[in-house]
Amino acid sequence: MGSKVVAYLVVSLCATIFVTQGVSQMQKQPTVPGLFPFGSPVDLVKCWSSLFTVEGCVLEISKVIFSGNFKNVEAACCKVFSSLDANCWPHMFPLNPFFPPLLKDNCARIVPNSPAHN
Predict the structure, then answer these.
(1) Is residue 105 part of a domain?
(2) Whose CA, among 14, 38, 97, 110, lies 20 to 30 Å from 88?
(3) Do 43 and 87 contact (CB within 8 A), yes or no?
């Protein structure tokens, strides 16, 4: 089961990279309404890469998504997740808009100095 989750995340990240690269090549062309708010694409690679700086963080977050168990998220992962720009969230988790604020609130308990959701 773990290898399926990792494979899913790798495929998702690769798709995100290709979409982001395609969007960046469309310089000054009109954007699709609702795809990127206010006409400026979010750098998804940058959003995800910050999570990859902490070993196992992406896997921890994926486990939380599928299990709903927030107890196993490490402090280092919480710190990085809490520092993400809130504009990344809808693009990183388009199918679950309630997940990022829930994780950030939980992380505020794990890492007391991290800000609560915006």
Answers:
(1) yes
(2) 110
(3) no
